[in-house]
Amino acid sequence: MTPKNTICLWYESGALDAARFYATIFPDSTVGKIFHAPSDYPSGKQGDVLTVEFTVAGIPCIGLNGGPTFPHSEAFSFQIATDDQAETDRLWNAIVGNGGRESECGWCKDRWGLNWQITPRVLTEGIADPDPAAARRVFEAMMTMRKIDIATIEAARRGP
Fold this sequence. Notes:
Elements: E1 7-11, H1 15-25, E2 30-36, E3 49-56, E4 59-65, E5 77-82, H2 85-97, E6 101-102, E7 107-109, E8 115-120, H3 121-127, H4 132-142, H5 150-158
Parallel strand pairs: 1-4, 5-8
Antiparallel strand pairs: 2-3, 3-4, 6-7, 7-8
């Protein structure tokens, strides 16, 4: 049964490749139905992959190969909570190492232009620390990073 709410992600092209990539790196991710265009359309030809249904970390999505009209932006991102540095490194390196690029504060962009926040739970907990000085130290440490370094976040939270 199709979910009532599905995130539709517009790709210039490569929605199927993106879905397959996500399914290889994120747990609870799958590729579902693939729909081919029944006729030519502005960004493609009859028979091209038009849409692909997929799930990313349990979130139902549909990828639409719509052409270059609407590129992804940081206004939308997936935030993936990680449990340790090994998981953080694995996901970050998979995205960046597959034609993506680094950004700031745990954000990176995949080769299709979709934005990801690879966010260790330690960071989220640290920013929410009831001690405002500890929360500030964690936040300030995060602001200096690209990929989040958990040991540095934990040290910042502990303080001097």
